[in-house]
Amino acid sequence: MTFRQFAFNNVLRNKRLYIAYFLSSMFTVMVFFTFAIFAFHPAFSNGSVNQNALLGMAAAGGIIYVFSFFFVLYSMSSFLQSRKKEFGLLIMLGATNKQIRLMVFLENILIGFFATVGGILAGLLFAKAILLVAENVLIISESLPFYFPTLAVVVTFGSFMLLFFFISVFVSFILRTNKLTDLVKGDKQSKGEPKASVFLSVVAALLLLIGYGTAIYVEGVGVVYAMIPVILVVTLGTYLLFTQLSVFFIRRVKNNTSIFWRKTNMLLFSDLSFRMKDNARTFFMVAIISTVAFSAIGSLYGFQSYLTKGVKEMNPFTVTYSPWLDDSKEIIENDIKKINAILEEENVEAKMEDMELTYYEMLEQDRQVLITKASDYNRFAALIGEEALNPEKNEAIVVEQSDAMLTQGTKSSEVLMASNVPLESGEEIKPSHVIKSDVLGELNGYYVVNDEIYNQLGTVVRSDHSAAWKAEDGQTEQIIEAGSKLDEQLDHKAFALEYQLYEINKAFGPILFIGLFIGIVFFVSAGSFLYFRLFTDLDEEKRKFRSIAKIGLTETELKKVVNRQIALLFFSPIVVALVHGIVALTALSHLFDYNLTVESSLVLGSFAVIQIVYFLIVRFFYVKQVKRMVF
């Protein structure tokens, strides 16, 4: 058997350890290859698709490539730690340090080659489906037909083979074989129960409480100023949580005899205490990486929702026309005729209303305020199904914008309520109450008065014109086409709601699409790290449970202990990451003064479900391996 055959057989014999590394690497290659398919797609190179999407995907590919380097490096270091005994036996049989380094180099190159080829083949298999999804997510009018991506294959294969080569050289160069006695003993050496500092445990709890409290308490622009300090405090608190506070908690539980001596709890907590020393850093890394994934995708999805829902709530009409201040009456009439003609041309059935907006000088407020008569307000309100207003002759109703995205509405209404509406005769009308409405898009609020009182107002200091159209449901495509023509022909004086939402989603789609892919890569990698930690210690677990089984441990008890142990090790960092994500998205909602509960629940809930499914799969194979060796 040649040395190359020996390295190949070594990979096959350790396939249980290498499978997660192989599959995760293959998935990373597949994602990178998918971005390469987009980057070199003829639709992009011909310039018929938004070039911002191309730039974003190139940046995302770079991020994934750099992350892959550190992911592969960490994976290899985990494998080498678990193979100390194997290296010791090879040295006893006459292998030199150079040969061991060469063996590690060949093994990594071999796995890297098959992971790269597998990732490219998987990418080709799902390429058409991904292109179809991208057409909808990226809001691309042209189709993205399947093509054989020769250049993408070459770039992906060359990039990742180069990555695996440098990783292999680096790992084999820094590999240290240590003393022979240490290697042969391998994982049989006592690691010693980790000790926790009471002071650092208290500091961990305080740092997390301070970080969470600050993130939840600050609002508006204060969120931006507090972001960096909060991230640093929470990151340090998370590290101390796993290295100190968790160990301290386990020791306290062990000292509680009523809990520790109950049924199989002794096996569970004793094992956790000894393994925490090795797992703490992995847990910290998984928690931080998962938090980044949750926060990034939650922020992107939340910001898109903030924009689209806010625009919808502030613009209830299908089309709104607002002329420039210096436009003449003739220009306004021509513009309205043009809008009606375009809507008719695109077969958009819509009802229209228009009115003159009149502003009056309010000396108490030192500003111009819109005052409209009830009949005009009610005509516009009828278009969108709002309630009509019928103020009495001695009454003025204050109307403020439904502040989905604004916080200034309340202050404006307070000012309007504190002022009276002067009449030409010198009398004043006192405002009676405030209502919220989207009928007229006046951000600073306005008055609605009785039609007879309206004719008794003073001199108009400024007038404007407003026209609105409300289309029937089910005409989205026609409205988008009409909106495109209106935007082009009327110099942005006409606002078509569906067209503007289409443009927002078109601009934001690539960012969300890219962020989703990067977040998934981070999340899958975090899950793989946990898999590495579990299966690295599998041989030691088998020996431990085989010994305990000899003194009466039943199969049911074994399964119960293993299930609880895996659940604690698997979900501890994920639960911490979910809490971090909830706090981060809460802070984001405070920044924009917009409730992101639905969006946060959807993102975090989806990742939690994925993690549970992943846990069930890992648990099945883990328990199967342990039971096979014990019973």
Question: Which structural traits does this protein have?
Answer:
single chain, 631 residues, alpha+beta, two-stranded antiparallel ribbon
N- and C-termini, Cα separation = 35 Å
Low-pLDDT parts are 404-410
Assign an overall shape. Answer: elongated
**Can you give the mean pLDDT?**
79
What fraction strand? 5-15%
Count of extended strands? 10
Gyration radius from CA atoms, angstroms: 33 Å
In short:
With 631 residues, the chain is α+β, with helices and mostly antiparallel strands.
Description of the molecule:
The chain has helices spanning 3-13, 15-39, 42-45, 51-82, 84-92, 97-137, 150-174, 180-185, 198-217, 222-255, 257-260, 265-314, 329-345, 374-383, 409-417, 451-454, 476-489, 497-536, 538-549, 555-592, 597-630, and strands at residues 319-321, 350-362, 367-373, 396-401, 421-422, 428-429, 431-437, 446-449, 462-471, 494-496. A hairpin with a 5-residue loop joins strand 5 (421-422) and strand 6 (428-429). It contains 21 helices and ten strands. Helix 4 (51-82) packs parallel to helix 18 and helix 12 runs antiparallel to helix 18 (497-536). With 631 residues, the protein is α+β, with helices and mostly antiparallel strands. The strands form two sheets. An eight-stranded mixed sheet has the order 7-4-8-3-2-9-1-10, sandwiched between helices. Strands 5-6 form a two-stranded antiparallel sheet.
